[in-house]
Amino acid sequence: MATHNLLLLPGDGIGPEIMVEVKKVISWFNAQGGDSFETDEGLVGGSAYDAHGVAISEEDMAKAMAADAVIFGAVGGPKWDSVPYDVRPEAGLLRLRKDMELFANLRPAICYPALADASSLKKDIIEGLDILILRELTGGVYFGEPKTITDLGNGQKRAIDTQVYDTYEIERIAKAAFEFARTRNGKVTSMEKRNVMKSGVLWNEVVTATHKNGYEDVKLEHMLADAGGMQLVRWPKQFDVIVCDNLFGDMLSDVAAMLTGSLGMLPSASLGAADPKTGKRKALYEPVHGSAPDIAGTGAANPIAMIASFAMALRYSFEKVAEADMLDKAIANALAKGLRTKDIASEGTKVVGTSEMGDAIIAEL
Amino acid sequence: MATHNLLLLPGDGIGPEIMVEVKKVISWFNAQGGDSFETDEGLVGGSAYDAHGVAISEEDMAKAMAADAVIFGAVGGPKWDSVPYDVRPEAGLLRLRKDMELFANLRPAICYPALADASSLKKDIIEGLDILILRELTGGVYFGEPKTITDLGNGQKRAIDTQVYDTYEIERIAKAAFEFARTRNGKVTSMEKRNVMKSGVLWNEVVTATHKNGYEDVKLEHMLADAGGMQLVRWPKQFDVIVCDNLFGDMLSDVAAMLTGSLGMLPSASLGAADPKTGKRKALYEPVHGSAPDIAGTGAANPIAMIASFAMALRYSFEKVAEADMLDKAIANALAKGLRTKDIASEGTKVVGTSEMGDAIIAEL
Ligand SMILES: CC(C)[C@H](C(=O)O)[C@@H](O)C(=O)O
Ligand SMILES: CC(C)[C@H](C(=O)O)[C@@H](O)C(=O)O
């Protein structure tokens, strides 16, 4: 029986509170016998800055590199709004993504049946929605150099960010998109701005070539990213897998998440390449939502996205598909019973706190 | 009595068809006496490429520079999908924006009462919506250099796009945002990604400084652009004026346009700086929608966004506010009578073609 090593990085704001609920879930799985999970914990974001003056310490980075999976909460908050750029809370997350080479970011946008009414969109538009945004996560304008602010004199400064993509970076995310589409509805929509950006031209070219090279059973469609944003709002069910670069993925996945009305519910997985020897991938799992500093400490945070992120870990890092399905089902059941945290409450439902929601999900397991 | 010179650039796809309706509107205004409009016509986009091998000829560029306003249709279509990058249809539009220095792009997202049901969003979320997206239009990743694709050998290419912003570029669009907000609900939301992009850091800094420098009567709020996309979907009425860079503006204004359910209805204005001597601004007016090649030639295109773009020209280039209001009212009246082009048809309304819709609006004048 295997032991899996998890590094928990709760981070800032509501991060630590929702991580407590994941720990309960982990204990529940450990108590069942079978494979077990060993957890270690570290600091990231503002809390790491407060302790070490950096957004993640070298020691915690080393732990992350060695772990079988990293379970990440959320980072940031007004407290750290004016810390130096290089050590701002987000730098911790960006370093994890880059150093662990987590190039494939999976952001499922699904509409939980019990929450179809919570969306700002009409029910028929989003009911049953199940799309996957696959975002390239280690390239593009997030990491390209130069990335500078220069003083030009005369009261003028010049800021530069650089969007860079190489063929291999686009190819590996395109392959991942086609492979995920095969396990879903067999369709990939690639989004870029080839009419304005050279990286969009190369993106389009490489995705098209990759498709021809062994993936022609999957349907491929190209869409300009601005039109894609529109189409997400107009009729999101037309999509199955959407693949795009780091910045477009950031924007489009947030729009998609909000469509479902289930923002506090949506998990994500960031995966590296499979090790040629062991087949293992480095991986980090985190909720799509942020650190919500305004409600931190009130016990009102919704732990579901965090728990669902652990379900993704079961699925993608530990091949425990049955267990992942079971955990996802437990979440859906708790919702179906009418339990809601404040962010998703509606008439006729029962509002519970973070910890009660965690307990209710475990009770359903 | 003044004569105003308009350059009409119908472009591709449905562009020429909807421009015909604007010409009717212009004739109507000319027939009333008072100031008159003289029109000249040119080619842009694919149609310019077919005639001259470029996306806009030097002659037409010169006419655009000299005109009091340019009225622009739409460009692009599958026919030109594989023409060289430098002469692709969009290059004509981008050159007009850049050479005319049209740095301020106004994209109102309003929900026509008669169309509140056409949106994919719930009626209470979008009914009465009236926001203005102010997009920086001559800087950022659209024009920054280097913008290249390089062959690295080994089957690898590298694509680079460069996002560049100088202080003065941010300052002038921020000023415009505050000034528009004063004529509206007095609130500006500035959107960037300062947590990832240096241009976001500078953007935030300059907008904040500009605000302190004479605009503190306007309420200023900052939002990360991804969160902004979410908030647009969640509760768009929280916004008044949104100001952002070229690429975020492209994405966010398209999402905002689709929220209203009135995409075929939305006009835009692109304005340059006021000439220090004459006070005049270079200006280009165009619908937010594209060239819709799939319906070109069928007589089904919706001419409203194009006509409303001419109303914006009356308002912003010719200080004809009463006339602009009258034209906007005529559009609303034609809709209130139940006339619809196919794209906005719904039960109980009467579907009409491009030319009938144009005539109906003129009848309301
Ligand atoms: C926190 C921030 C750096 C991050 C990003 O921009 O990638 C976040 O918005 C996300 O989408 O995970
Ligand atoms: C046609 C294209 C170059 C253009 C842009 O990206 O700016 C369009 O999408 C727009 O928003 O006006």
Automatic annotation (TrEMBL), chains A, B:
Subcellular location: Cytoplasm
Predominant cellular place of this UniProt entry's protein: cytoplasm
Binding site for substrate: R97, R107, R135, D226
A Pfam family assignment: Iso_dh
Protein's GO biological process: L-leucine biosynthetic process
One GO molecular-function entry: 3-isopropylmalate dehydrogenase activity
Catalyzed reactions: (2R,3S)-3-isopropylmalate + NAD(+) = 4-methyl-2-oxopentanoate + CO2 + NADH
Keyword terms: Amino-acid biosynthesis, Branched-chain amino acid biosynthesis, Cytoplasm, Leucine biosynthesis, Magnesium, Manganese, Metal-binding, NAD, Oxidoreductase
Broad enzyme group: oxidoreductase
InterPro entries reported for this sequence: IsoCit/isopropylmalate_DH_CS (IPR019818), IsoPropMal-DH-like_dom (IPR024084), Isopropylmalate_DH (IPR004429)
GO cellular component, as recorded: cytosol
Annotated EC: 1.1.1.85
Binding site for NAD(+): 77-90, 290-302
Cofactor-binding details, from the entry: Binds 1 Mg(2+) or Mn(2+) ion per subunit.
Cofactor(s) listed: Mg(2+); Mn(2+)
Binding site for Mg(2+): D226, D250, D254
Domain named Isopropylmalate dehydrogenase-like: residues: 5-361
Site-annotated residues for Important for catalysis: Y142, K193
Pathway: Amino-acid biosynthesis; L-leucine biosynthesis; L-leucine from 3-methyl-2-oxobutanoate: step 3/4
Family, as annotated: Belongs to the isocitrate and isopropylmalate dehydrogenases family. LeuB type 1 subfamily.
NCBIfam families in the record: leuB
General function of this protein: Catalyzes the oxidation of 3-carboxy-2-hydroxy-4-methylpentanoate (3-isopropylmalate) to 3-carboxy-4-methyl-2-oxopentanoate. The product decarboxylates to 4-methyl-2 oxopentanoate.
Subunit relationships: Homodimer.
Name this polypeptide is given: 3-isopropylmalate dehydrogenase
